[in-house]
Design brief:
Helices cover about 20% and strands about 35% of the residues. It is an alpha/beta fold. The protein folds into two domains: about 210 residues, UDP N-Acetylglucosamine Acyltransferase, domain 1 (3 Solenoid); about 130 residues, no CATH class. The strands form five sheets. A ten-stranded mixed beta sheet has the order 2-5-8-11-14-17-22-25-28-29. The model has no long low-confidence stretch (mean pLDDT about 95).
């Protein structure tokens, strides 16, 4: 076959994929791949393309294959184990995550594209076929066991059967629930939700809830999504904080409240006795001058602010090594600490996915 290629790049896996990550990265850089700092390539993982760019902190799991012509993987992207991405043009935005055993490939054309925005996620066992292109806007998610097909063809077009090849477009802040089937030509507007076990064909308008087989809009503005007052936001933050602290305690972390701060401690056994690590967590729901006063108080390791943190305050917090989280803008500091990473992960449960921001 003139256009065929090996299903599994076994030669590349044996020659390069089985090497330790630092040696593998060194070889890829010699080939001209642009690979950032603190990148991790798991055992058996390979990247195959003419033009490759991998951002700082990206992690690619065990026996994962990323193959194409042009591949761009953003900063802090995570791709789980045994995932297979095989598309001519691949672009995965900063902070996005693809879980284990996701397949991106199938029937395609030379210009086929798979593009994920920033802070997106695809859950495990999903099958994605970008016959022409599949694009996801920032902060969108696809549940597990979903099927996205850019073509519908099997029986002969000369016998009257349909043969369709078209793109699929997913807007920003879209939620695709588990086991959704999307057909070629589907287009989902920003801020919409597709219910579980639905089939999508055609356009779903912005900020809508669509369910069914085929999916139909069952709720739209102004009823969906509902308006949230400032008082509601403060209450939500307090409820989530209380729940999170109990979660930490369930994992044997000591949590003691001191005014509006929490002192969180972890005790571990070492060769020389018991080691104790302690962090201070400050939760701020105020704004304006009250917020500024809370941000300038010293000694916090992690600060979570419901409202916007200014650039100047971010710079000051960075200089002290504090991990700050700005819920309003869904942003966080570039650097990290152990407690801050746990807090950021917990906020994801409530749809707050945070992009790392450098301050200069």
């Amino acid at each position: 076959m003139l256009t065929s290629k090996s299903r599994i790049p076994l030669k590349q896996i044996l020659l390069v994929g089985l090497l330790p990550s630092p040696i593998k990265i060194f070889i890829y850089r010699l080939k001209g791949y642009r690979i950032g700092r603190n990148v991790s390539l798991g055992f058996g993982a390979v990247i195959l393309a003419d033009d490759v760019e991998v951002g700082d902190g990206a992690k690619i799991g065990f026996l994962t294959i990323v193959r194409g012509r042009k591949i761009k993987i953003g900063r802090y992207v995570q791709i789980g184990s045994t995932t297979f991405i095989d598309t001519p043009h691949v672009e995965i935005g900063e902070g996005s995550k693809i879980n284990e055993q996701v397949f991106v490939g199938g029937l395609q054309f030379p210009n086929s594209k798979f593009i994920m925005g920033r802070n997106c996620q695809i859950m495990q066992m999903s099958f994605i076929n970008p016959t022409h292109s599949i694009t996801m806007g920032d902060d969108s998610g696809i549940g597990g066991h979903c099927l996205l097909f850019g073509h519908t063809s099997w029986l002969s077009k000369f016998e009257g059967y349909p043969a369709e090849f078209d793109s699929i477009e997913i807007g920003k802040s879209v939620s695709i629930s588990w086991r959704v089937f999307m057909l070629p030509g589907s287009k989902i507007g920003d801020g919409s939700i597709i219910g579980a076990n639905s089939m999508v064909r055609g356009a779903i308008p912005e900020r809508s809830l669509a369910v069914g087989f085929p999916a139909r809009v069952v709720s739209a503005p102004p009823e969906f999504p509902r308006a949230v007052s400032d008082e509601d936001k403060v209450r939500y933050l307090n409820e989530i904080t209380t729940e999170m602290i109990e979660y930490f305690r369930g994992f044997e972390l000591a949590c003691e409240q001191q005014n509006n701060e929490w002192v969180v401690s972890q005790r571990t056994k070492g060769w020389l006795g018991v080691n104790v690590k302690t962090w201070t967590l400050r939760i701020i729901s105020s704004r304006d001058e009250a917020l500024a006063n809370e941000l300038t108080r010293p000694n916090a390791n992690v600060i979570v602010s419901l409202n916007s943190i200014s650039h100047d305050h971010r710079r000051r917090l960075d200089s002290t090594g504090c991990l700050w989280i700005d819920i309003q803008h869904k942003e966080r500091s570039e650097h990290s600490n152990e407690l801050g990473e746990e807090v950021a992960m917990y906020l994801r449960r409530y749809g707050v996915r945070l992009l790392r921001q450098k301050t200069t």
